[in-house]
TrEMBL record:
This is DUF2268 domain-containing protein. It holds the Pfam family DUF2268. InterPro entries: DUF2268. Residues 121-308 form the DUF2268 domain.
Length: 320
C-alpha cells in the first residue's frame, strides 16, 4: 500500500517503527543472517530487524537518560542504514520511535514464532512476481509495526510497506497479519521497485502517484487474482465522477496533503477512502483491457499520461 519511500508521492505507508534486543550471541547471529534466494539471475534478500528492535526496547527499559530517538538511532536506525545501503536517508523521513515498548516486545515475540512461515510467504510472492516481471536484485527489510499505529491492523490486514529505492522495500508487520495481505503487499511493493527501475521521475505528482498505485495493484492482482483488498472495492458512478474531477483538478500538483486526502477520503466532497488506489486501479485495468497487445513490462515503464490517454479516462489529461 504505498507505497513508498524515495521521492514517491505516496503518503506515509511509512507507519513508524521501533526497535531492538540483545540476545544470546548464537541466537542473534542466526537471526541476523539474511535469507537469500534467486530467480534465474535475480537475487533476493529478506532481512529481519527484530533483534535491533528488541535492543531498542531493552535500552529504553533501562532508563539510561537518553531520549527514545537517540536510543533508536543507535540501536535501530544506524544498523538499518547499513543493511539497506541507504546511508543518506533521514530518520525524520522514515521512522519514529515508539514509546509503547511493552506492546512492541510482545509483538516481536509473536512475530519471531511465525518467522519461518513469514519468510516462506515472502519468498513465494517474490518468486511469483519475478517470474512474471524480472528485474534487478532486491532487498525486503522486515520490521514489527509500531503498536501505536492501529491503522495497519484495522485497515490493511496487519501489513504495510514502503519503497526506499529501486532495490529496497521496508515491510512492517503486525502479529495479526493476514497471510493473503502479506502475499499481496509483497507483490504490490515489488512492482513499485520495477516501476522505479524503468521509469524514474514520473511519479512526483498526484496524477503520477495515482497511476503508479494502479499499476502496482494491477500487477498484484495478476499474481494473486483471488485476493481481495479493500482499496479495490468498486466506487459508485457518483463517487467515480467526483474522484475523476478531483484528480483532474489536482493532476500536476505535488501537494502531499492533497494526495493524503484522496487516500483518507473526504466525505464533504463525496470522495471515498482509498480514492487514489481505486481510480488508479480502474485506469490501469481499463488501459490493459483496451490494449491487450501491450506487455506488462511495457506498461510498467509507461508515463502516466500515456496510460491515461489509452484508457477510458482520457479526459483527465491528454498525452503530451
Amino acid at each position: 500500500m504505498k507505497t513508498v519511500g524515495k521521492a514517491l508521492l505516496i503518503p506515509a505507508l511509512c507507519f513508524m517503527f521501533v526497535g531492538c534486543s540483545k540476545k544470546e550471541p548464537v541466537d542473534k547471529k542466526e537471526q541476523e543472517t539474511p535469507i537469500t534466494f534467486s530467480h534465474e539471475e535475480q537475487n533476493f534478500e529478506i532481512i529481519y530487524m527484530y533483534d535491533e528492535v528488541q535492543e531498542y526496547v531493552d535500552a529504553v527499559r533501562e532508563k539510561t537518560g537518553k531520549s527514545n530517538e537517540t536510543v533508536f538511532i543507535e540501536k535501530v536506525f544506524e544498523p538499518f542504514k547499513k543493511k539497506s545501503n541507504m546511508e543518506e536517508i533521514s530518520l525524520r523521513y522514515t521512522f519514529e520511535p515508539s514509546s509503547e515498548v511493552d506492546k512492541l516486545a510482545e509483538s516481536i515475540k509473536d512475530l519471531e514464532k511465525d518467522k519461518d512461515t513469514t519468510s516462506g510467504i515472502i519468498k513465494e510472492a517474490l518468486l511469483k512476481s519475478a517470474k512474471e516481471l524480472p528485474g534487478k536484485d532486491k532487498k525486503y527489510i522486515i520490521f514489527p509495526a509500531n503498536p501505536e499505529d492501529t491503522f495497519i491492523v484495522e485497515q490493511m490486514g496487519g501489513v504495510s510497506g514502503f519503497v526506499l529505492s529501486e532495490d529496497v522495500i521496508v515491510l512492517q508487520l503486525s502479529p495479526s497479519m493476514q497471510e493473503d495481505m502479506l502475499k499481496y503487499t509483497v507483490a504490490h511493493e515489488y512492482h513499485h521497485l520495477l516501476a522505479e527501475e524503468s521509469n524514474r521521475g514520473t511519479i512526483r505528482t498526484i496524477l503520477g502517484g495515482v497511476v503508479v498505485e494502479g499499476k502496482a495493484d494491477s500487477f498484484a492482482h495478476t499474481i494473486y487474482p483471488k485476493i481481495q483488498v479493500p482499496w479495490q472495492e468498486s466506487m459508485t458512478p457518483e463517487e467515480k465522477e467526483k474522484v475523476v474531477a478531483e484528480i483532474t483538478e489536482l493532476r500536476y500538483s505535488d501537494d502531499m496533503k492533497a494526495y493524503e486526502k484522496l487516500r483518507a477520503g473526504n466525505s464533504s466532497k463525496g470522495i471515498p477512502q482509498w480514492a487514489n488506489y481505486k481510480i488508479g486501479y480502474e485506469i490501469v485495468q481499463s488501459y490493459r483491457k483496451n490494449h491487450p497487445e501491450i506487455s506488462m513490462e511495457r506498461w510498467t515503464s509507461m508515463h502516466e499520461a500515456e496510460i491515461i490517454a489509452g484508457s477510458d479516462f482520457e479526459k483527465i489529461t491528454a498525452y503530451e
